[in-house]
Design brief:
With 160 residues, this protein is of the alpha/beta class. The chain has one domain: Response regulator (Rossmann fold, 3-Layer(aba) Sandwich), CATH 3.40.50.2300. 46% of the residues lie in helices and 15% in strands. It has a five-stranded parallel sheet, with helices on both faces. The N terminus is likely disordered.
Length: 160
């Protein structure tokens, strides 16, 4: 059987998945920051590859509580979460982010094996994708969310 290489993320325990931006100057260079909450190491690797190839700065959390803490510190442009993550499920995470004035403008994409688009919408998610992971669907949805978020933030600033 051929030996396969894998990312250090694949074997990293939750405590070893800090949010580290690919480009520390992301805010200054205008690169969108994405926080991904994913428990499956293989899906994490694919998401990381697709999103970084598309030019985004990506960080990871393996559970909902860690994601909430990181989102409050970093204020990413988009948070992508699976529903079935430990500590604080993805829908509860979405509700908490949307209820907090500091984090309510983070676009939330729920990405799950569960057919739960309605539940995601009720939790305040901005978009829902059903697994399995498709590169174009993921990247296109992220780009659309960024455009919508930018337009929404412009309108909010204009109205103030």
């Amino acid at each position: 059987m051929p030996e396969t290489s894998h990312s250090p993320l694949a074997d990293a325990p939750a405590a070893r998945l800090p949010f580290v931006m690919a480009d520390p100057d992301s805010r200054e260079t205008g690169k969108a920051i994405i926080l991904v909450v994913e428990r499956d190491p293989h899906v994490r690797e694919l998401e990381e590859h697709f999103l970084r190839e598309a030019g985004f700065s990506v960080g990871f959390a393996q559970d909902g509580e860690a994601a909430l803490v990181e989102a409050q510190k970093v204020i990413p442009d988009i948070l992508i979460t699976e529903i079935l993550v430990p500590m604080l499920d993805g829908l509860a995470l979405c509700r908490r982010l949307k209820a907090d004035p500091r984090t309510r403008d983070i676009a939330v994409l729920v990405f799950s094996i569960l057919a739960a688009a309605g539940r995601a919408r009720e939790a305040g998610a901005d978009a829902f994708l059903l697994k399995p992971l498709g590169e174009h669907a993921l990247v296109d949805t992220v780009r659309q969310l960024l455009e919508e978020r930018t337009a929404r933030l412009r309108r909010t600033r204009h109205d103030q």
